[in-house]
Every structure is written in structure tokens, then in C-alpha cells.
Write a structure and sequence with these properties.
255 residues; alpha/beta; TIM Barrel; 3-stranded parallel β-sheet; 8 strands; 13% strand; binds nickel (II) ion
């Protein structure tokens, strides 16, 4: 039985003190692959160095995070495009829309997302979407720019059942993480209704640690807590959750 962490920022400084031990814990907890979303150009070197240290275990994505779409976003996008021309990545990401932190650059966020969608098309890559407080807006934009063969993940999905259906009809999977274990978050009710074939697992480490570690640093070895909760909600075995979500992740990332 293996799990795939489809979204973890394990190259960040939060793991500088114990990265090797963290990777050993991950292996003991059955997590054999880690997909790492880029944030902005300040993260690229550390992310790709980690990928090189753990071949076949850690995989880099490339993209510009919506919270880092600022005055210099065009320069940042140029750097992303340079990387795309240089080597193969596991996906475009993370990119998307964020109406939680700062709305100042919302139009530029949309522009950056449209650009990154076009790269997903031309490089035939999945697209990993961040949609905080902007699920509706992101679905609308994806519908508008949809192309044949489009695929990817709505990372940290937190929408309604209707939105989940719209997303899966667009060929996307739903990234489910620690939030599904939180009391009163309401995500458990939605996940119960979503067929397993549309779900992939993620930690979003170092953020959003699952219960009973809520508030602490999250890491991939905690992914089993998410798998356990989904198995409980769907009244199936953990093995079934592991097998299906691993297959789904392989489909998304074509690995
Ligand atoms: Ni993220």
C-alpha cells in the first residue's frame, strides 16, 4: 500500500532542520511520491535540489502562485517560461486565484492564470490550482479557457457538491487534505458524496496539519490520517483509498 502526496512544499525552510528525517518518516508512513508545487522564483533552486536528492520520490512543478502575483509578475512568468523550455516538469503549479489575502492584483492573477493554462496546453501538462475564496471564479475561468485533454487538480478543494461535480466534469481531480479531518469545516459532508475516482490526497505541508496535529507543522508522513478519514467517510478500507487515489495521481501526473 502506497500513498501519493500530490501537494507538499517540503523544500521550504520549515524543513531545513530535519528534512532527511522527515523523508524517512514519510517512507515509513507509506508515502512514496511527493509532488512539489512551486511558489515563485525564490523557491525554484531549493525545490529542484530536493528533487535531485530524491529521484523517483520528489517531483517538481513549475508555476507562479497567485499570492505572489505582484508588480513583478511578468518577470516571474518569464522565469517560469524559461524553465519550461529547459526541462520537463510534473505539472504547471501552483497557480490560480486567491481572494482571501489580497485582492489588489486580482486582474493580474487572472492574466497569469490564463497564461499558465496556455502553457499547460502547449506543454501537455497538468495544472495544479489554488482557489482560496475563489472556487467559483476559478471554475468560470477554467470553463472559458477549457481545452481538449485538460487535466489537473483543484488543490485544497473546499467547495460545494455542485462545484465538485462541475470540476470533475471539466476533467479535474479534487485535492483533499487535512481540512477533511477538521470539526465544523463541512468538507467531510461533501467528500462523502464525491466518488473516490475524483479524489487525490495532499498534505499542503507545512500547512494544514490533520487532526490531532492541527496547528502543528504538517508533513507528508501525516497523509495517512487523511486517508483514514476518507475511508471512514466512504465506508471503505484504507487500502482502497490508497489504491484509487494513487491511480488517480498517476493519471494526473502521467507517471
Ligand atoms: Ni500550496
Amino acid at each position: 500500500m502506497y500513498l501519493v502526496d500530490t501537494h507538499c512544499h517540503i523544500y521550504l525552510e520549515e524543513f531545513d532542520v530535519d528534512r532527511e528525517e522527515m523523508m524517512i518518516r514519510s517512507e515509513s508512513a507509506m508515502v512514496n511520491r511527493h509532488f512539489m508545487p512551486a511558489i515563485n522564483s525564490s523557491t525554484h533552486d531549493k525545490m529542484m535540489a530536493l528533487e535531485e536528492s530524491y529521484p523517483g520520490k520528489c517531483f517538481s512543478m513549475i508555476g507562479l502562485h497567485p499570492c505572489y502575483v505582484k508588480e513583478d509578475y511578468q518577470k516571474e512568468l518569464e522565469i517560469v517560461e524559461d524553465w519550461l523550455q529547459k526541462r520537463r516538469f510534473s505539472a504547471i503549479g501552483e497557480c490560480g486565484l486567491d481572494l482571501y489575502w489580497d485582492k489588489t492584483f486580482f486582474n493580474q492573477q487572472k492574466e497569469a492564470l490564463v497564461q499558465q493554462i496556455s502553457w499547460a496546453k502547449s506543454y501537455d501538462l497538468s495544472i495544479v490550482l489554488h482557489t482560496r475564496n475563489a472556487t467559483r471564479e476559478t471554475i468560470d475561468l477554467i470553463q472559458k479557457h477549457h481545452f481538449e485533454g485538460m487535466r489537473g487538480i483543484f488543490h485544497c478543494f473546499g467547495g460545494s457538491i455542485d462545484e465538485a461535480n462541475e470540476i470533475t466534469e471539466l476533467g479535474f481531480h479534487l485535492g483533499i487534505g487535512g481540512v477533511v479531518t477538521y470539526k465544523n469545516a463541512g468538507l467531510d459532508v461533501v467528500v462523502k458524496e464525491i466518488p473516490l475516482k475524483h479524489i487525490v490526497l495532499e498534505t499542503d505541508a507545512p500547512y494544514l496539519a490533520p487532526t490531532p496535529n492541527r496547528g502543528k507543522r504538517n508533513e507528508p508522513s501525516m497523509l495517512m490520517l487523511v486517508a483514514e478519514k476518507i475511508a471512514f467517510l466512504k465506508n471503505c478500507t484504507i487500502e482502497e483509498v490508497a489504491r484509487t487515489t494513487t491511480e488517480n495521481a498517476s493519471k494526473v501526473f502521467r507517471t
